[in-house]
Write a structure and sequence with these properties.
This protein has 301 residues and is an all-alpha fold. Helices cover 77% and strands 0% of the residues.
């Protein structure tokens, strides 16, 4: 997935005409398709962990909606980002983790049940916390349409996931066959989202130089690091530290890209950080999972 997304991003950036046929108006529908696929893979058992291990889920929720938003705000100010880029970076920070974090946790031999539980709960909290935190961090910089953000998350994320979850519960045996092609569908949808945003904003992305790339990379890497250190401080087992680090560092950047167009229609650059993050976190996540796989519960730290 990382390789595919990277190739598409490079093509859209340096040869935008090859990808301009992918319209930005498709982004919401593509993201809805990804979220529906996520719903099809969820089972009631995935939510049982909330009641069995509420402390772990609570830690993940608090960390998700504090660490990444604050890092985004501090990096944006440190790099003196213009209003559009600052809004986009903070949107990435206030969004929940995506399904990619669950995959990377699995590949890293981390606590997959905890990862899925955190992603599920954080996604359900997103309609309320994402607009609220975004407003608190940006209210003195730009106008934030909180109501539009809330409604957009409900429409693009919650409804498709709920529909997929219900269908899986009613016709689980049949959805297993559909689940086999879901990774391909998700990768295709994410690649098309990246193609749309990058190709239609290629000039603006190139104009920002390395600034936006530096902020996005630091945001992601610091999220991993702070998440892992938090696990160390709390004395969590290694598998949970892996899950926490990956869940915090990897965001639902596709959602951030979608929300940028809804909440900040006059800020064209607001869509850029989400698109760049979509490319980068799949690369860094794969590399981190490869490193984490070499650690086991007998390893120090």
């Amino acid at each position: 997935m990382a390789v595919i997304v990277l190739i598409i991003a490079a093509l859209a950036l340096f040869a935008p005409r090859t990808c301009l046929w992918v319209q930005t108006s498709w982004i919401n529908y593509l993201l809805m398709l990804v979220m529906f696929g996520m719903g099809l893979t969820l089972r009631f058992d995935d939510f049982v962990i909330v009641f069995k291990r509420p402390r772990d889920i609570l830690i993940g929720c608090i960390a998700q909606f504090t660490i990444m938003p604050l890092l985004a705000f501090l990096l944006g100010k440190a790099f003196s980002l213009e209003a559009g880029l600052l809004a986009g970076v903070i949107l990435v920070g206030t969004c929940p983790g995506g399904t990619a974090s669950n995959v990377m946790t699995y590949l890293s031999k981390g606590d997959v049940a905890l990862s899925v539980g955190m992603t599920s709960v954080n996604t359900l909290l997103a309609p309320f916390l994402t607009p609220a935190i975004t407003y608190l961090l940006l209210k003195t910089t730009v106008t934030v349409d909180v109501v539009s953000m809330f409604l957009s998350i409900i429409k693009v994320v919650i409804v498709p996931i709920a529909l997929g979850f219900i269908i899986n519960g009613l016709w689980g045996d049949r959805t297993k066959k559909a689940a086999e092609v879901l990774p391909l569908v998700s990768v295709t949808a994410i690649a098309l989202i990246v193609a749309a945003v990058v190709s239609h904003n290629s000039e603006r992305i190139l104009e920002t130089g390395m600034q936006v790339f530096a902020v996005v990379i630091l945001h992601n890497l610091l999220g991993y690091a702070v998440g892992y250190v938090l696990g160390l401080v709390l004395g969590l087992p290694l598998s949970r530290k892996k899950a926490l680090a990956i869940e915090i560092g990897m965001q639902n950047s596709g959602l951030a890209t979608s929300l940028a167009g809804t909440a900040f229609p006059s800020l064209a650059m607001a869509t850029v950080p989400g698109a760049v993050f979509s490319v980068w976190h799949n690369i860094s996540g794969a590399l981190l999972a490869n490193i984490f796989r070499r650690f086991d519960d007998t390893a120090a730290g």
